[in-house]
């Protein structure tokens, strides 16, 4: 009978640990987290030791870091009880060498002799191999990048919201993920594999919705795949999202992407295609545009006024709130007013959100008296319809004049 000698790595039972996007610990393919759902502090202790598995801690260090707000009469005994419960959940034996967290010479530490399958180790290794291959062996790099992206399901220990100790390591893996997304899309771009770029970006947007560069690459891939309308819809979705969530206007890079969308959208193979495209655009409300587009429309109105002598008016609508009103409430009020203006103004009128508290409205064919009456009626109805309307709304009017009229006023 042949006996096996004990290896340095102990692997009597396979332990799989997931940390990216979803935390779980499986032993022999059974979830230990699901079997002990009410043991929040115990799993917090486990996550801390896992995150700092190359360090050792005194009982006092652990208690101060993890539960400094708790008032324990005997912190050492409390920690011993937590460790005992953790070992019960992990179904560990009393032998110190077969325990994931060991206590030696007054310090707790992670037992590196235990063989575990950890998703962050697999993720980091796949990224490292891809980085080494991307220049000389791009196909091999693509395989490893794909593996890395499949492993990254979200933030490291995403459920640990208030724990500051998790932030540095979370940011580290997030940075590796974004770098992998950009590198794999660069390689696929060389191959012209825009379809896979779309799939990668769609997945990445779910994980990192605020990352502008991913949206830019997604829009580029849509344009390359002739999905122009989808590209425009995504641009409108993302810019609206940024403004509503963070009060941000489109960056120069996003504006450049929008210009490419417009340029691509205006390419037609025949006059019949152009006619069909124009007929399909149903106009229901006033025209909303970005500030830089509004400037171009204003310049066009100046030229038209110079030629025809017809008048047009611009109005600045300013919302004033007390200083106690939160930014979120201000943005909600601005969004409500924008919706109301678009519904109440004429189809030929143009509106833009100039900044966080101002709208600009361009009304062709109206003089200042008529424009004041029109907007007074619209703003009064806004107060009636929206209970959370701002305390005051101010309006300032400017007549669109041809260049010679403006120069005459200045003399």
TrEMBL record:
GO MF annotation: an example: DNA binding
Pfam families: BTAD, Trans_reg_C
Cross-referenced Gene3D superfamilies: 3.30.70.270, Tetratricopeptide repeat domain, Winged helix-like DNA-binding domain superfamily/Winged helix DNA-binding domain
Keyword presence, Lipoprotein: no
Protein name: Transcriptional regulatory protein, C terminal
DNA-binding region ranges: 7-112
Any single biological process term in GO: phosphorelay signal transduction system
Protein family: Belongs to the AfsR/DnrI/RedD regulatory family.
Species per Swiss-Prot/TrEMBL record: Alkaliphilus peptidifermentans DSM 18978
InterPro entries xrefs: AfsR-DnrI-RedD_regulator (IPR051677), BTAD (IPR005158), Nucleotide_cyclase (IPR029787), OmpR/PhoB-type_DNA-bd (IPR001867), Rev_trsase/Diguanyl_cyclase (IPR043128), Sig_transdc_resp-reg_C-effctor (IPR016032), TPR-like_helical_dom_sf (IPR011990), WH-like_DNA-bd_sf (IPR036388)
Keyword Magnesium annotated: no
PANTHER family reported for this sequence: TRANSCRIPTIONAL REGULATOR REDD-RELATED
Keywords: DNA-binding
Annotated ranges, domain OmpR/PhoB-type: 7-112
